[in-house]
Amino acid sequence: MPRSLQTPTAHEKDIHDPLATLRTKFHIPADTIYFDGNSLGLLSETVQTRVADTMAEQWGNDVITSWNKHNWINLPLTVGDKIARLIGAPEGTTLCCDSTSLNLFKVLCAALDINHGRTEVLSTEDNFPTDLYMVQGLQQLLGERCTLRLVPEQELLAAINENTAAVLATEVNFRTGRKLPLAELSAKAKAQGALTIVDLAHSAGAFPVALLQHDIDFAIGCTYKYLNAGPGAPAFLYVAPKHLESSRKPMQPLFGWLGHAEPFAFSVDYAPAKGIRQFLTGTPPILALAAVDAALDIFADIDMADIRKKSIGLSEYWLACMADEGLLEIMPSISPDKAEERGSQLAFEHEHAYAICQALIAEGIIADFRAPNYLRIGFSALYNTYGEVQQAVSSLATIMHERRYENEAFQQRNTVT
Ligand SMILES: *Cc1c(COP(=O)(O)O)cnc(C)c1O
């Protein structure tokens, strides 16, 4: 790579990193520094092998008997239990299935039904759009039984009131990386009789989450970001045990046969399975679920507190390197200054952010751009190094100081940014 060598500081930090060996489990593309694990995590050897084995041995040789023989039928629950460990949820409360968007639809319906005297879903103006769209779709379906109220993020807690049926909050803002205080959010919601739905898309696998401890009612999230389960891998869904225990009728309206109490009785009428299983819909994507299962094995012996510590170490070092290069004046951070108030990403504002990102990619440094004008850097404690931070910021400095982003080639917009 035509970049400067590591500084002694970066080298020291990498030597003392207790998670350093985990990087060897991942396929790091040649000549690439990858800071986009918050959008799509890297492929690991563990996942590659498991998917290949599941195809060759289970599908290939055991074919349909695998539903029993390899317990495919329960995979959404067994994988769900592995996710539960990372998000502070007890066994039997978490499923791995469908997409985050679809799972949000299910838990929104459940929340509005439990809190049926109220209609208001309260969320933030700059929540990730799919979250808001799902509420808008439900609003079209339910009419006045569902209303969406949006407030600026900093006003969310104060805006919860006696009309709020459910607060829909994404814990980490996808642009700024700001991390909302879940304990306070939950306490305020409880005090006003509102339920909580938390989107953990940028939380699961990035830092410790304590859903049960914070008395969160519902949660959803992705597995293809910090959990590294692969493009479009099935999402997860959490329902607090108290709701699962007290439900007397189906909790959500997508009555799929695999959410039925006795799917193989093939009866005409729907009757929900007990517990979290009733949130299943149709046949699970086994190959993709096998990928999630394997991706989670990498987390089995890791303390999420160590992940958090390194993630903060990487982001603070990134900021320090940018300050050294005089970059923070020309492309200011829009992320909170305090590391504890951030997820595992940073974002910087510049009118040419799109072209800057393209110029970085041309150097083999993968970051991403978020409209209108932010450069976003995601940190994965499992595979990123301090040396990579130092090299990436050094390249960024060259791009900025030489105004390389003005190059015509970097202005062309792709479909996916
Ligand atoms: C990435 C992301 C999603 C993605 O939802 P999909 O249904 O998987 O496309 C949802 N919510 C948030 C907050 C996200 O960051």
UniProtKB/TrEMBL annotation:
A Gene Ontology cellular component where this protein is annotated is: cytoplasm
Q: What pathway annotation does it carry?
A: Amino-acid degradation; L-kynurenine degradation; L-alanine and anthranilate from L-kynurenine: step 1/1; Cofactor biosynthesis; NAD(+) biosynthesis; quinolinate from L-kynurenine: step 2/3
Catalytic activity reads: L-kynurenine + H2O = anthranilate + L-alanine + H(+); 3-hydroxy-L-kynurenine + H2O = 3-hydroxyanthranilate + L-alanine + H(+)
Primary role: Catalyzes the cleavage of L-kynurenine (L-Kyn) and L-3-hydroxykynurenine (L-3OHKyn) into anthranilic acid (AA) and 3-hydroxyanthranilic acid (3-OHAA), respectively.
> To which protein family does this belong?
Belongs to the kynureninase family.
Return the PANTHER family for the record.
KYNURENINASE
**What is the official name of this protein in its record?**
Kynureninase
Q: What gene is this protein translated from?
A: kynU
